Amino acid sequence: MPHIDPEELSLLALYGAWLDEEGQRHLNSCDACSAEYAALRRAVDAMKTTPDSTSFEVPGPNVWSGIHRELGLSDATVADPLRSATGSATGSAAGSATGTETSKAGHTDPPGPGQPPAPPTDIRSVKKRPLGWQRRGTWLAVAAAGALVIAGGTLWNLNQAATPLARAELSPLAQHTATGSATVLESADGSRNLEVKLSKDEAQGYQEVWLIGTDLKRLISLGIMRSDSGTFPLPSDLNLDDFPIVDVSDEPLDGNPGHSSVSIVRGSLSS
Question: Is residue 118 part of a domain?
Fold first, then answer.
């Protein structure tokens, strides 16, 4: 099996269970795809409002040495300030316990020529991160995560005191059994949203919500529905009389943006 597409790995990092069984087996056995997915997960976690500070690393003394050299600083600032601060904290603790050698423990001299630098004190050892931030999929995950946070907050505000305009009962098609409803809601500012609720998620790939024209040829994609419900903003100039049919399709992970022709549920809006 070829490597998993970067966009699919990004979606997996964002939403969790996204791959089919074959893709999951490949992810478990492929070192390259596993490393890419791990980098994407770290990128998504970095979007959290309270990041885990234990994953941060203190830069080595060579970083400060390079800064000091490039800026032409004086010898008074040759010591790495981060390492000196760490040593001072350790010295204070040692001085409290023994009452002696506080000044020695509170200062860390830079290593002499040919001597390896001493490891930083009280810093948790962590794995070095791969250069995942330079990879295309990582940036996609970060951008998508940020967009979801912004869109989620916007939709929450718009749905306050919303007025129902139309509703559709969604019935199963083909070999599916899911049922549900779709409701058009108008917010106080005049914007409209389509709220879709299903009894379950039966998609083998992923669910996509569509509006279909009365001629059954014109389609408008409203977006991906990651669970059994979702809210989707409607274009301000959209005439629902021209696109009254709500459709939830099962879309494969094939990169084709068109309708798969496999519909899970469908129904017509009425006031």
Answer: no
